[in-house]
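To close the section, here is one more complete example, presented without commentary so you can practise reading it yourself. The ligand is flavin-adenine dinucleotide.
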Amino acid sequence: MQQKFPINDTLKATLEQIKGRVQFDAPLGALTWFRVGGVAQVLIKPSDIEDLQYIQKVALDNNLPVTVLGVGSNVIVRDGGISGITIKLGGPSFTMVYQEGNAISAGGGALDRTVAETAREFGLSGLEFLVSIPGTIGGAVFMNAGAYDFETKDALVSVEGVTVEGNHVTLARQDCGFSYRSSRLPKGIIVTRALFEAPSGGLEEITLKMQGFLAKREATQPTRTRTGGSTFKNPPGELKAWQLIDQAGCRGMMIGGAQVSHMHCNFLLNTGGATAQDIEDLGELVRKKVYEKCGVQLEWEIKRLGVNRGEG
Ligand SMILES: Cc1cc2nc3c(=O)[nH]c(=O)nc-3n(C[C@H](O)[C@H](O)[C@H](O)COP(=O)(O)OP(=O)(O)OC[C@H]3O[C@@H](n4cnc5c(N)ncnc54)[C@H](O)[C@@H]3O)c2cc1C
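Output:
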């Protein structure tokens, strides 16, 4: 990887002061659902908030960009990798989920599914939809993930995060600028925890709802493949993204090892040997064909991180 941000031995040693894990030139493909992409110049797994505050400050002082990865279920990491620091939240500080009266507190690295299951355990409702979203709470807040007429913002009370300056802050829901599959959190903030209100509900009703969502998902989406979920946001208007893609004749279309899913044509697949470039090129071809056929500019929902091969 071309080193756009040179990291000398002193800076390496400074980063290695944390309690968590620091790796250089760490492959990222295995950390994403698509299983593609280059290396992280530096991959850091902080062990707690203090580590994260330290990293943000070091990054700011040294002009290093910081990128956060959840479980990579809505990203394409490009083949040239990610320059600067990539953060992956793991460990108990960032994954713990617990009940607080009629609310659930969930770490930014906790799986959405675990949050839904914990809420059910305590007979709390309103978070059932999270069982079907294969990401983390940090990703759910950042993307305002949603399914079956629920969005992450609906039950959210507040969000904790560490800012680019290294401050540990709490934001009220109304300060997060939520809209469809999007938030306007302070630039560069890393979401470390979220508090959700969750009224009491019947255990059987909650369980049935969760089972229903999972069954529906299984029947309509390629959930057991290398994919990034919905590729494009649904545009305003009558037709959903998948309907426009279908009308434009893109179902099953391929570039290299990348394919538009036959089952749900707003999903792109890595059929085996795809590169990130194949997947992104296929997405762009779909956008072009939809525009030519339907006059609609599809907007990427998937976040494309890093640089193409050969780019610095
Ligand atoms: C099979 C499948 C089905 C899916 N179904 C749905 C669905 O029904 N509804 C839906 O909304 N999405 C769906 N998705 C997309 C995806 O699961 C969600 O967008 C999810 O919220 C992403 O979480 P993640 O942890 O994987 O984030 P990533 O994909 O790793 O990252 C997504 C973005 O969030 C940012 N981010 C991640 N963690 C943090 C953090 N702690 N702080 C700040 N920013 C952060 C990243 O930088 C990136 O920009 C699906 C994906 C797949 C593969």
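Once you have examined the tokens, check your reading against these statements. The first helix runs from residue 9 to 15. The chain is about 30% helix and 25% strand.
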